Amino acid sequence: MDTAAFSAWIREFARLVGQNKDYLTELDSAIGDADHGANMTRGLNAVVKMLDEEKPDTPSALLKRTGMTLVSTVGGASGPLYGTAFLRMAAAAGDAETLDDGTFAKMLRAGLDGVLARGKAQLGDKTMVDALTPAVDALDATLAAGMPFPDAMQAALRAGEEGRDATVPLVARKGRASYLGERSAGHQDPGATSVTMLLAAAATTLTA
Amino acid sequence: MVGLVVVSHSHALAEAAVALAAEMLHGQDVPLEIAAGLDETTFGTDAMAITEAITAADRGDGVVVLMDLGSAVLSAELALDLLDDDALRDRVTLCPAPLVEGLVAAAVAAASGASRDEVAAEAAAGLAGKQSQLGTPVEAGQVDDAAGHEGVLLTVTNPHGLHARPAARLVAEVRAFDAKVELRNRTTSSAWVPASSLSRVATLGALKGHDLEVRATGRQSTEAVEAVLALAARAFDESPDTVNSAPYLTPASPTVRVAADPNSPPGFAAPAAPAAPAVSAAPAVSAAPAVSAVPSDRQPPSAAPSSSSAEPQTPTSPPFFNEISVKSGEAAQEGRGSAGAAVGSGEAAQEGRGSAGAAVGSGAAAWEGDASPSAALGSGPASRGVGASPGVAIGAVWRARAAPVEIPEISSQGAAAEWARVAAAIGTVQAELRGIDDQSGIFEAHLQLLDDDDLLDDVRARVADGAAAPNAWAGAAERVAGEFDALADPYLKARAADVRAVADQVLRAILGVAATSLDGTGVLIAADLTPAETAGLDPANVTGLLLADGSPTSHAAIIARTRGIPAIVGLGPALLDLPDGTLVAFDGGTGEIVAGPTEEVLAQFRERARDQEQRRAESLGRAAGPALTGDGVTILVGANIGSLNDALGAIGADLAGLVRTEFLFLDRDAAPGVDEQVATYREIANALGGRRITLRTLDVGGDKPLRYLPGPVEQNPFLGVRGLRHSLDHPQLFADQLLAIATVAREVPVSVMFPMVSTVDELLRARQMLDEAIAKAGPVREDLQVGIMIEVPAAALKAAAFAPHVDFFSIGTNDLTQYTLAAERGNPALARLADGLDPGVLRLIEMTCRAAGERVLVAVCGELAADEIAIPLLIDLGVRELSVAPPLIPATKEAVRSTTVDAASASAALGLPGAGDVRASRKE
Q1: For chain A, how many structural domains are there in total?
Q2: B675 touching A, CB under 8 A?
Q3: Which of A26, B28, B551, B570 is a Cys-bridge partner for B371, taking CB atoms 3.0 to 4.6 Å apart?
Q4: Are residues B113 and B220 in the same domain?
């Protein structure tokens, strides 16, 4: 995976989020402040513009600039959370011009660790962690089992989707949704939804 | 002077708060910076802006940051990480004080020259005035002059309460003193527990905001209480980096997520669907007694989440089940959904007995694998759990021998000897646990338990009282587990399982009883498997895995998937009543399962297994074979290659339909020489093993600039100097590449492809340079082919003019779509517009194919080539080569094989108004 592949990944993420802006906002309006779709779209539009203008020349540089751009343009909690994830991924990517499967998996794990450290959420808190954790676990496990990357990424996506779907019955313990208490149950978490799009984008763009 | 930074979602709010604070300053100059809102009116926080504000506010004495809520806190924490100046970072305090009160108090303190800690403390105490006015008790955690007295209050401020890390920190702290320190949770009115025991501290269930009382006796009691209060004030030294790796009380396995919903059975997380209809729908069996037989400690069926929400448990079963119900005889036809009904083969079902937990008979029954324990015994004609690992499995069930170990009636050989047995067993288990690759952190938690004061003291006491090692150990462990059971917080409650798991392991070690045996063959059934157990499964013997609990995201499920062991989880406790040796057949993909299947049902499952295996093997196996349409037209399926790795992964490709040579040129400081290019093209050719490679000449430009050939900044790089235009503008670079290509074309079948061609003149100039390169390289193979990309609409429209000069056209549908619809493909707002199935694009493809005639091959190398809806259409239009990403080759070939050429259908599509209409018409 080279810089171009990462660029395609992030652009695809931006496309998916943009396409689902209203859906994300709708999810967020059920249990949050109805800004997730708008915030993420604003941030990712800025990222795409950055990619067009700056053309970072390594995966790490690209991820770093993506993180920094999100930090400054998203506005809500997703800004520091996604921002931290991308910055940690950038650090894990090192100076390499191309990344192999294992490094990518490590990178994704580093991103997850960043989200955990920043948001202090745990599994079951009804957050993006609930989708990202099983996905990262699945990617590690399937790669360790010798599965080729595209299949492994598909497995990771599936695990992420399952994790996302499993946020529905949960009671939120983090973020604005936690103010709703029990009333947050029965709604899918917007953060888990958008992070699954990040995985979906990886599954379609990084496996070519 | 200490500087202040105000972080808020709202710029207006921050400005106003600062104005309020300024009123208190009477003109004194306190460095006060604002980082609030994305702009004047847009709510949001920006970590970069906070970093800048901190830097601006610092005059060497440090900075106190006050925040409003949510992302303001996260962004402020991130801002600290982003500070380049480590020394400055150490001078920053993120203060949890309320924003307005805190800012006013902090401003006054800062103006008086107070230190950073004093300013932060003043701010944090900013609520005191309001609290005393309103009669709310001031947080006692801040009142440390009460130290030394019994029952001093502290408030837990840690976000996750007193979980593993902070609790461990607390335990370590109090152990350092010569004092007996005790805690109790005043909020929950808990009993006093020793602060020196991690497990006991955990039983306090201390969550954020809870008030704890601390007291101590002994020589250093005062110091100990002071230390605890100080520790609590520091949030038990919990930092962002440690909070999430907390090993012991932190849920470490995905199964724990479930516990967040107290109504969920352990280990299950799936969208809710009421299971009640299954019961009320029972046509013949008296359902009510069955329901009432459900033990009262189970949840009501209506609260049971069920992953089988896609399968409403109504009398209208899916066809597959109906089939089974007809064929599986007497048992199946009756007992639909009666929770707890015993289904023997025969009379039991007729009677619909409501005894919960009765066995599912082996005659011809199947049961409903509902996730809810209460409804799990619904003995319908069919059943289904949560498919957790795909694949069909048929086999006799066997179970993990996890029955409780018998504790023998033996007498103590003396306290020392018995303790030594316990200690030796603990040592053995510790060694085992350390040997496990513990990515989950679960085993670290177990290890910590084995070192737990409270547990070990209890064991010692029991041994001293004359108990033998096994009894002492089992009794103490069960007491600790029982205390977890009694907790209200589901996270902590779930830790009882950890205690029991590790206790069982130690007990087996004491007794020399082998651990749970998992070396049977066939279909393994169990309540749940620990990660360690799952990791030890041998896929050669375990043909399938059925779990009463568990979720598809559990470690057991993930490991089963990676090992290719078909698995269903969430089948409910009825599963465990299946007698050993019962034949079951199930599909881990769909979650369908039948126990005691009839021959017909077995045959269906066998056939399904064969089908699945065959499909998998076939699409892989047939990837290498040619792709012919149903009516025998050969379609070449090629690989798009952007690296040597891609080339190595191009399994089943008939050729490399597109080699993006840019990868050789980008991200470096000088152009690759001819020799390097030759070597790389050769490697790609080798990887393709003699199959044709289509080398596209350099496709760079304003959108993909070369560092060593910087061009002028273009207003619109996609409409600028790119592709062949760029190459013709840089003749030396182009000549070198053509020479390298010509050299390789002497050895292997090569196609040369020029990108971004708009005019015939461009093509002719390029061809002339290619001829010059060939003259220089020496005679090339006769099968050298020359073609162009069709990306510019003008080229498609003029395809007839290009055709005499080329051997092939390769349609780059991504760019062609972007240019035809004037919709940049990277712009998410235009995603719906930029669909290659737009009839406008299709007409250009059709025009290109028509102009190509018989001699000129038309390929598609854009995303459309792997689009299963587009493939038949492209073939209908006359496309005869599809070049796709290497992993998509098998599926693309399969899609080709399942279509037949139908020109009429294609022309119908051309007449439709939009891409959506085309997609809809093709799905019909």
Answers
A1: 1
A2: no
A3: B570
A4: no
First to last CA, chain A: 9
Query: Is B705 part of a structural domain of the chain?
Result: yes
- CATH number of the domain to which B45 belongs: 3.40.50.510
Quick one: B185 and B121 in the same domain?
A: no
| ipTM of the prediction | 0.82
DSSP-derived pairing of the beta strands B857-860 and B808-811: parallel
Domain identity same for B69 and B170: no
Question: Contact, A10 vs A40, CB < 8 A?
Answer: no
Number of structural domains (chain B) is 4
Most B CBs within 10 Å: which of A3, A45, A49, A71, as the mutation test of the B interface? A71
Q: Chain A 187-206, CB below 8 Å of chain B: which residues?
A: none
Transcribe B236-301 into DSSP letters: GG--HHHHTT--SSS--SGGGGGGGSTTSPTT----B---HHHHHT-SSS-HHHHHHTS-TTSPPG
Task: Find chain A residues with C-beta within 8 A of B831's C-beta.
Answer: 15, 18-19
Q: Which CATH number is B450's domain given? A: 1.10.274.10
Total residues found in chain A within this entry: 208
B802 and B655 inside one domain: yes
Specify the pLDDT at position B51: 93
Tell me the residue range of the domain where B146 lies.
140-243
Supply the CATH number for residue A167's domain.
Answer: 1.25.40.340
Q: Does B667 touch chain A (CB under 8 A)?
A: yes
Q: Is residue B750, in this structure, part of any structural domain at all?
A: yes
CA gap B600, B323 in Å, rounded? 10
Residues B122 and B163 reside in one and the same domain: no
CB contacts, 8 Å: B243 with chain A? 116-117, 120
- Tens digit of pLDDT at every position of chain A (208 positions): 899 999 999 999 999 999 999 999 888 888 877 889 999 999 999 999 999 999 999 999 999 999 999 999 998 889 999 999 999 999 999 888 999 999 999 999 999 999 998 888 888 889 999 999 999 999 999 998 888 999 999 999 999 999 999 998 888 887 777 777 777 888 899 999 999 999 999 999 987 6
Pick the range with the lowest mean pLDDT from A69-78, B210-219, B310-319, B461-470.
B310-319
A95: contact with B, CB 8 A cutoff: no
More confident site: B878 or A121: B878
Nearest Cα to Cα of residue B912 among B922, B897, B903, B902: B922
Would you say the pTM of this structure is higher than 0.80?
Answer: no
Do B470 and B484 lie in one domain? The reply is: yes
Q: Is B152 on the interface with A (CB under 8 A)?
A: no
Q: Check which CATH number belongs to the domain holding B859 and give it.
A: 3.20.20.60
pLDDT at B136 over 60: no
- Which residue of A lies nearest to B71 if distances are taken between CA atoms? A77
Residues 713-772 in B contacting A (C-alpha not used; CB under 8 Å): none
Q: Which domain holds residue A98?
A: 3-205
Does residue B35 sit in the same domain as residue B86?
Answer: yes
**Residue numbers in B near A118 (CB within 8 A):** 74, 77-78, 240
C-alpha–C-alpha distance, residues B96 and B99, integer Å:
8
pLDDT higher than 50, residue B897: yes
Query: Considering only CB atoms, which chain B residues are within 8 Å of A46?
Result: none
Tell whether A72 is within 8 A of chain B (Cβ). yes
Asked which of B491, B511, B531 is the last residue of a domain, the reply is B511
CA-based end-to-end distance of chain B = 74
Q: Which residue did the predictor score with more confidence, B200 or B914?
A: B914
B624 reaches A (C-beta below 8 A): no
Asked if B149 and B122 sit in the same domain, the reply is: no
The SS3 assignment for B78 reads helix
User: Among B219, B243, B267, which residue terminates a domain?
Assistant: B243
